[in-house]
Amino acid sequence: xxxxxxxxxxxxxxxxxxxxxxxxxxxxxxxxxxxxxxxxxxxxxxxxxxxxxxxxxxxxxxxxxx
Amino acid sequence: xxxxxxxxxxxxxxxxxxxxxxxxxxxxxxxxxxxxxxxxxxxxxxxxxxxxxxxxxxxxxxxxxxxxxxxxxxxxxxxxxxxxxxxxxxxxxxxxxxxxxxxxxxxxxxxxxxxxxxxxxxxxxxxxxxxxxxxxxxxxxxxxxxxxxxxxxxxxxxxxxxxxxxxxxxxxxxxxxxxxxxxxxxxxxxxxxxxxxxxxxxxxxxxxxxxxxxxxxxxxxxxxxxxxxxxxxxxxxxxxxxxxxxxxxxxxxxxxxxxxxxxxxxxxxxxxxxxxxxxxxxxxxxxxxxxxxxxxxxxxxxxxxxxxxxxxxxxxxxxxxxxxxxxxxxxxxxxxxxxxxxxxxxxxxxxxxxxxxxxxxxxxxxxxxxxxxxxxxxxxxxxxxxxxxxxxxxxxxxxxxxxxxxxxxxxxxxxxxxxxxxxxxxxxxxxxxxxxxxxxxxxxxxxxxxxxxxxxxxxxxxxxx
Lengths: 66, 465
What we know:
The complex is a heterodimer of chains A (66) and B (465). By secondary structure, chain A is mostly helical. Chain A has a domain of 46 residues. Chain A is built from three helices and no strands. Chain A is elongated. The model of chain A has no long low-confidence stretch (mean pLDDT 84). The relative contact order of chain B is 0.13. Chain B is built from 16 helices and 15 strands. Chain B is of the alpha/beta class and 465 residues long. In chain B, β2, α4 and β3 form a beta-alpha-beta unit. At the A-B interface, α2 and α3 of A face α10, α11, α12 and α13 of B.
C-alpha cells in the first residue's frame, strides 16, 4: 500500500537522497528544489488516482489497444 | 488564384497544379526556400534545412510529370518534420544537445517515406521542446520557436516548430508527435488544424521515443482538407512499430464533405469547464453555436485520467533516459532534467495504479461513444502565453505553464482517442483551438466535422506580419 502523499512530503528529502543513490544518479544541489517540487506534483497526481477505488479484477493496460 | 505559386497556398492546390504541369515542383520549392530564408530567423521553426535533398525530390517529381506519370496526391507539396523523426544521413536531435553525438540515421522514418511516396518534398527538421517533454515550444539549446501571430508568444509544444512553420506559411503540412498534447497544443496556440490519430493508427517507426505507451505521431496543416490529405498518405501497416493495429488504409478524403447532420455530438463538461479562460470558453461556444449544440456530457474521472497520463509519462520517460541521466544530466534542459529525475523516484504502485485506471477510463469512454459520435472540448485553457512565462492563473490557481498547458489534451491521450483540433480566430486576438474527439478508429468523423466547421468559417488565420 502506498503512503499518503502528505506523509511522504515530510520525508521527501530523505527519500530522494536514498533513491537517487540507489538509481546511480548524481545531482547538483541547485537542482534539488525543482526535483522535489516535480516529485510532489507527481504525488498530488497519485493522490487523485488513489481516491478512486479500483476493483481487484481491474487489469492494468501496459500494452494499450484502443 | 495567382498563376504563380505563392506561400500559404493549400497543399491540395499545389499538388493539383503540379500534377497538371501548371506549376513545377522545383519552382514551388525555390519560392518556399526563399520564404523560409526570409522568415526563419524570426520564427526559429527550422533547425535544419535539407535543401540538396529537397531539390533532388522536386526534380524527380517534375520528371515524373514530364513523363506523363502521376507523382501522387501530394505532388510537389513542401513538408517538414519535428526533429525527432529520423532523416536519412542526419542526426536525430529530438530537441536535445546530447543527441548531437549520435550517429546519423540510416533510414528515413516510415512517415517521411510515406509522404515522399505521395510526391511530397521534405524540406528539413523542425524545432521542438527537448525530448518532447514540453508544452511551450521553448528550447534552451536552440531557442524558442515563435508564434507567427505574435513573435513574443509561445508556439506551444512540444511540436512547436511544426506549429510555427505551418502557421507562418513556411510549409502547408508538417509532421509532429503527440504524447500528451504535443500536436494539439501548438495547433491551438498557432491557430491551425492538427490531428492526433488513434493510438496504433500511424507508424512511429524511426521516431525518437518519449513515452512509448502514449506516443502518437500525426500531421498539422492550415486546412482540414490538407490534414485529411496528409493523413490518408500517412496511413498503412508497418511491422516496424509494435503497437500498430495494422488496419490497412481507411481513407478520409472520399467522405470529407459528406453531411454531418447524422452525427451525435456533445460538449465535454465538468473538468473541461473548470479551468478554461474566457477565450477558451468563447471559442467552444462559437463552435457549439454553429453546430446548434447544447447537450453537455460530464466525463467522470477526467482529472484522474489526466493524472494517470502525467504519471505514466513521468515514469516511462525517466526510465528511457535513465542511462543518459546518469552520464549527461547537466547537458539536459533543466526543466526536462528535473522532471525526469523526479520521475526516476516514482513508487511502482503509482504507475501501476495509473495503468489500471487507464483500463477503467477506456471502458467509460467506450460507453460515452455508445451514445455520441463526437465530443467537443477546449484544446488549451488559454491562448499563447508569453515566451519565458513560467506560471499562469487558471480558475484562481497559479500553476506552472510547462506541465499544465496540456491539461485538456492529456486525458484523451491516456486512452488513445483520435482528436482533431480546429482553429478559432478572432480579430485582434490570438487564436485558440477546439478539440473534436472521436471513438477509436473514427478519425474520418472528426475530420468531416472539422471540414464542415472550416466551411462554416473556422479557418486558419494568416499572420498579419
